[in-house]
Amino acid sequence: MNMLDFELFGEGNKGDTVVIAHGLFGSRKNWRTIAKIFSQTGRKIVVVDMRNHGNSFWSDSHSYEDLGYDLKHIIRKFGDRADLIGHSMGGKGAMALALTSTETIRKLVVVDISPVSYSHDWSDYISAMQSVDLASIANRKDLDNQLKTSIGNSGIRSFLIQSADLSNESGSRWLMNLASLQRNLPSIMGFPHFKTTNVLPCLFIRGSISTYVLDSHLPVIRKYFPNVKLNTIDRAGHWVHSERKEEFCKLVLSFLNGVVR
Predict the structure, then answer these.
(1) List of residues 6+ apart from 67 with CB closer than 8 A
(2) Which string of DSSP letters, residue by residue, matches 107-171?
(3) I need a labelling partner for 85 at 20 to 30 A (CA). Which of 73, 122, 201, 246 fits?
(4) What is the per-residue pLDDT across 99-128, written as a single tens digit (0 to 9) for each?
(5) Which residues pair with 109 in a beta bridge?
(6) Mean pLDDT, to the nearest integer, of 211-223?
(7) Distance (Å, rounded) from C-alpha 79 to C-alpha 68?
């Protein structure tokens, strides 16, 4: 059985375990700062690389049932249950686990994603990364210059470059299984149909200038998670946890402590 690669913060802490799952094209590195903040509350914080990302295993399969299965085994490594936080793709994997293994999660936090299908087409980003001549890359500026020919948004380029390993002795490489992600994009953009619900305490957080969690999604969210609270963080987009870090951390910790209204 393959196990997700992870990083543990607050190893000696006696509090509850919290598992954090990143989004598409990301890695556990994106959540280190927040994991350190959360670990200061006495909790154990486990930040994972999802399959086909970071240092975790590569697989031809990348369904949300797969991602939920991976998260279940990380949780079981640290005990029977854990609090689970998932952003974007990681949020969908977390929801899939909650709907297939209802006893595994104590509290669920879903960050700027809904259990619906999206029309976003990320194949151009994958193609741009695949077209990079990694043999000619000496530093991040070189990589940025090559990506710039296909991706005009500097913020997106900076995010993608975080998943490049430029120090490998065998040459620069992407820390993502781009071929598998490309093949599985229709599944990643979708969400399975589940007949189950989960009444666990659940918090959805969205950014006010993001379009990933719309009011029109609320009926399906409430169908799957009747005990849901929805909070909107002002002036935040899809990466709400990095754009409005202080507000995000305060909101999540209040929820985990049982005081979010």
Answers:
(1) 21, 50, 51, 89, 90, 92, 93, 96, 97
(2) EEEEES--SS------HHHHHHHHTS-GGG--SHHHHHHHHHTT---HHHHHHHHTTEE---TT-
(3) 122
(4) 999 899 999 999 999 999 999 888 999 999
(5) 85, 203
(6) 98
(7) 16
